[in-house]
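Entry 12.
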Amino acid sequence: MTAPPSSHATHGRDHSEAHLVFFLASIGTLIALGIDVLFPAFDLIRDDFGLSEGAGARSLIVLLFFAGLAVGQPIYGPFADRFGRRPVLTVGLGIYSAGAVLATIAPTFEMLLAARVIWGIGAASCAALFPAMARDLYGGDHLARVMQLVTAVFLIGPLLAPFIGEALIATGWWRSVFISGVGFAAAACVWLWMFGETLPPERRRPLELHTLARSAKAILGTASTRRYMVAVMFADGAFYIHLGATQVIIDEIYGQGRWFAPIFSVFSLVLGVVLLFAHHMTFVRSARWVASAASRWIAGCGTVFLVVCLMTDGVPPFWVWIVLTAISISGMTVIRPTCVSLALEPLERMAATASGVIGAVSQGAGAAIATLVTSQISDDATPMAVGFVIYGVLCVLFVARAHTTSIGSAPSGSQPPPLRE
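Predicted 3D structure (tokens):
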């Protein structure tokens, strides 16, 4: 059974690289907007639902979103390889909107958490398909450079999101931070249908059990893909510690909650600059060199962070904590686009399926291991630093192992020549 051709497909060839980068970044930004717009409302959420102090309960609002993100990605992938990217992403945006609506009307905290899972399942379409759409059109280090640029532009979302959240709260109805997700999804859907399809009909795969089995075998049986995926998992785990605990640390440990929005935006700006530098170094050196450097940066900065925490009873001076956090998370942000690109390189024929599996494992397990750390944060920042060190070292080990595997060892038939190299 083969997919019908799409008479409206452009297959990405009528768009400049800059247009592609901004379009894919807008799709990826929906993931961040589903999280970061909520941060200024965390105190109101706690008060409204009668939650306890600390990071535990509120971090569930973030981490269950990532759980949905993990569950959904391997589902969307095979359908997108069969029917194309555009119709499947449209369905995902509909689920994204439904989750936002359910969160808006949730009468209890438990129902809010259920809505966050659904919201995350909708966002999973964005997470699985924007790397696949890039892989439809690019290969090699060019793919890594495009993904790094997409991620750098994507960070405009986290840069603006806390201010958007503050503005929505200022309207007097704090639940508007939830319903705003419907507007974001609608805007992305309009741009999606204007942009077109990136996967031509002749490169679509049957949606059959034996085809899915072969795809799973190819993905998990490709050593470099598997090792890069685990490296991303540990980098994501470290980054999700930051996402789950930063607002609580700023507000409850340092008592500087009014500074959360500008500080979080500064973090995003720093990450964007670092990604542009990584893009340059990928051009000068290679994606593998950048992946190695970024993983070592995570481990090294985490070690410095931990030493400082141990010397200050877990509460470094506020601005010292900000600098240490910013430099630590910068390496984590570089790892995802770079290593995902390297992981997808041998699997172009099943890019969406592979992207879904990689995302499910790295983000789902990353969120789970982050919870082990965020649940320990109450009155000092030491657990954050410990998590950065442990997950950073493991990331270094798996990136190094992936580099020892020839990228040309992909299963036969999984890799045609890239469209643009």
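Annotation: The CA atoms of residues 22 and 329 lie 23 Å apart. Residues 223-253 form the longest helix (31 residues).
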